[in-house]
Design brief:
alpha/beta; Rossmann fold; Dihydrodipicolinate Reductase, domain 2; 6-stranded mixed beta sheet; 12 helices; binds L-homoserine
Length: 356
């Protein structure tokens, strides 16, 4: 039995609860995942906590019908109104699932992660901010406490881009990274290629739950830059500050540019790359920029909110992974997948994270 405190129950947090409810029996039978949600806290939607466990179906009913937790029924022993830090201090959780939105400062999520790890709680997060601002500190804290820090959902949602590089390709060495790493802009560019306006394409991406709370994070390339910072540290073992990413967003890709690309059979993509020369040991160049790609480029064919990443490796050459890059359920799955690792290896000394 693993006791979970969920911090942040917007679209991604609710999708995580949906998965627990819908897939719970199968996860229990096949993977031994037996989850007791003991607290949910969200600055907008409210908070409930109960040591004996909350009813996930009732949580979802309250969240989906009233957009808040005030109507969650008290079956006895219920506490209401704990903020995130109260929750971490009082809920007696084994794992904090952190699903608050990414902010440029990385807060309050970095404080949530730091606090939970210091308390010896495992952390599973889809929030990029803590990794952009405090990767080494957090992984060291996890290792010192012998707990896990799961971050799969920070890059390409539930598509296992980080696991592929760190676990599946163990023994090989990744030298460079090139990808389409933002779902919102790829969705928008795909729609605009079909004739949609920039504004309509953005509105559709927001409605589908792909965009950041402030969509400038997507269209100006910040989100892809954050992912490069995480990939640089986690996959290449290279520290990178977000200010060192050369960054151009998609706002300059207008109708004219789309028409020109179409005439030549090309596609605009927001390409994010990490390159340190052929041997992978030179100065690291990190770049996010719109590029017009010909059909021969595998990234040209990435449709809608899909993303793709190509790792150039020593032993296998180029290895490309394509899959969903954004979305509520897709990111909720990443949280669930990281939670499975907590259960499979209780007390595992963190992901080998900062050691690389
Ligand atoms: N806004 C992000 C995107 C969400 O569109 O890719 C996933 O990180």
């Amino acid at each position: 039995m693993v006791r979970v405190a969920l911090i942040g129950c917007g679209g991604v947090g609710q999708a995580f609860l949906d998965l627990l409810r819908d897939r719970g029996p199968e996860l229990g039978a096949r993977h031994g995942l037996d989850v007791l949600v003991v607290a949910v806290s969200d600055p907008v939607r409210g908070a409930v906590a109960r040591a004996e466990g909350l009813d996930v179906g009732a949580l979802l009913a309250a969240l989906k019908t009233t957009q808040g937790l005030a109507t969650y029924p008290d079956q006895g022993g219920l506490s209401r109104g704990w903020d995130s830090l109260d929750t971490l201090a009082r809920a007696d959780a084994d794992v904090m699932v952190e699903a608050t939105p990414t902010t440029p400062s990385g807060e309050p999520a970095t404080t949530h992660c730091r606090t939970a790890l210091e308390r010896g709680q495992h952390v599973v997060t889809s929030n990029k901010g803590p990794l952009v601002h405090a990767y080494d500190e957090l992984f060291h804290a996890a290792a010192a406490r012998g707990v896990r820090l799961g971050i799969e959902g920070t890059v390409m949602s539930g598509t296992p881009a980080l696991r592929l590089a760190r676990e599946t390709l163990a023994g090989d060495t990744v030298r460079s990274v090139r990808g389409v790493l933002n779902g919102t802009t790829n969705f928008m560019l795909s729609r605009m290629e079909g004739g949609a306006s920039y504004a309509a394409a953005l509105a559709e991406a927001q409605a589908a739950g792909y965009a950041e709370a402030d969509p400038r994070g997507d269209v100006e390339g910040w989100d892809a830059a954050y992912k490069l910072v995480i990939l640089a540290r986690h996959v290449l073992g290279r520290p990178l500050a977000v200010d060192d990413v050369e960054r151009t967003g998609i706002t300059a890709v207008g109708d004219l540019q789309q028409a020109e690309a179409r005439d030549r059979g090309q596609h605009w993509r927001l390409v994010a790359s990490l390159d340190a020369g052929d041997a992978g040991e030179g100065p690291l160049r990190a770049r996010v920029r719109p590029e017009r790609l010909g059909a021969e480029d595998p990234l040209a064919a990435v449709p809608g909110a899909m993303n793709a990443i190509t790792y150039r490796t020593d032993l296998l050459g180029a290895v490309t992974l394509m899959g969903p890059g954004a979305g509520r359920r897709e990111t909720g799955y990443a949280l669930l997948r990281d939670l499975l690792d907590v259960v499979r290896a209780p007390g595992h000394p963190g992901d080998e994270g900062g050691a690389r």
